[in-house]
Amino acid sequence: MRVLGVDPGLTRCGVGAVEGRPGAPLTLLAVGVVRTGADEELGARLVGIEAGIERWLDEVRPDAVAVERVFAQHNVRTVMGTAQAAGIAVLCAARRGLPVALHTPSEVKAAITGSGTADKKQIGAMVTRLLRLKEMPRPADAADALALAICHVWRGGAQHRLAQAMAGAARTTASSRGAGARTAGARTVGARTLGARISGARTPEARTPEARTPEARTSEARAPDSRAPGARAVEARTSEASTSDTPGRAALAAGTPAAGAPSGAPTTHRQDDPAKTPEKAPEKDVTP
């Protein structure tokens, strides 16, 4: 991996490029500083920094760019200038489609020296040793830029692979959620279809009157006799017998022959119960 490290600053912007991979010796490609005049206007200084970084990108052709992450300082004016220069470096890399990594000073110190509180002299000494240089890079901004590049070579690859793995996991989770949502939607549609089938299987009484046929409405208007045909026939014969026998019964009760009875037929008189008929008193003899 070929990495260009940028230590942002308005007056001196350190730039350094190294090539290598984790666990293998590193190679120095180039190191330097982009300078601007302190008496120039801010816009002109930013334009000069942009032009210098663009030249370095053309010459080195890095695979990635590592920029120091700006953190708060007591000197607000200094931190503002550093942030503006860092923005120019990020812009130049993004314009070319290069990946940009931001590393804090503590992260760089810990990666190079093993301590997050190391000073610039310790950092310069370790950079000289790691790159097998004869002397320490000057000024300190150039050494810091090389330290940024080395830090990204050692940690940037692992961080990039971790970011790719996390992105892949996020895509897998999103696709599985989408598949689950589609399955749930299919189940809902199936439930609605089943409900529609059950509704269609209801009895004719559950349907609206408009949907019934005229024959069905006519049959419903009739008053059907729920009794069996045999029971209806027996009741009809009993009614006829009762009607035809009524005059005979009346005549029998009155002591006269019924209409249509033969003339020689004896007439049956009702005889009162002797127990209920009072006895006549004996007649008295009134003969003198």
Automatic annotation (TrEMBL):
Mg(2+) 1 binds at D7, D141. Its cofactor is Mg(2+). Residues 172-288 are annotated as: Disordered. Keywords: Cytoplasm, DNA damage, DNA recombination, DNA repair, DNA-binding, Endonuclease, Hydrolase, Magnesium, Metal-binding, Nuclease. Its EC number is 3.1.21.10. It holds the Pfam family RuvC. Its main location: cytoplasm. The active site is at D7, E68, D141. Residues 172-197, 246-268 have a biased composition (Low complexity). GO terms for molecular function: crossover junction DNA endonuclease activity. Binds 2 Mg(2+) ion per subunit. Residues 204-225, 269-288 have a biased composition (Basic and acidic residues). It is found in: Cytoplasm. Mg(2+) 2 binds at E68. Signal peptide: none annotated. It catalyses: Endonucleolytic cleavage at a junction such as a reciprocal single-stranded crossover between two homologous DNA duplexes (Holliday junction). Gene3D superfamilies: Ribonuclease H-like superfamily/Ribonuclease H. NCBIfam families: ruvC. Belongs to the RuvC family. Homodimer which binds Holliday junction (HJ) DNA. The HJ becomes 2-fold symmetrical on binding to RuvC with unstacked arms; it has a different conformation from HJ DNA in complex with RuvA. In the full resolvosome a probable DNA-RuvA(4)-RuvB(12)-RuvC(2) complex forms which resolves the HJ. The RuvA-RuvB-RuvC complex processes Holliday junction (HJ) DNA during genetic recombination and DNA repair. Endonuclease that resolves HJ intermediates. Cleaves cruciform DNA by making single-stranded nicks across the HJ at symmetrical positions within the homologous arms, yielding a 5'-phosphate and a 3'-hydroxyl group; requires a central core of homology in the junction. The consensus cleavage sequence is 5'-(A/T)TT(C/G)-3'. Cleavage occurs on the 3'-side of the TT dinucleotide at the point of strand exchange. This is Crossover junction endodeoxyribonuclease RuvC.
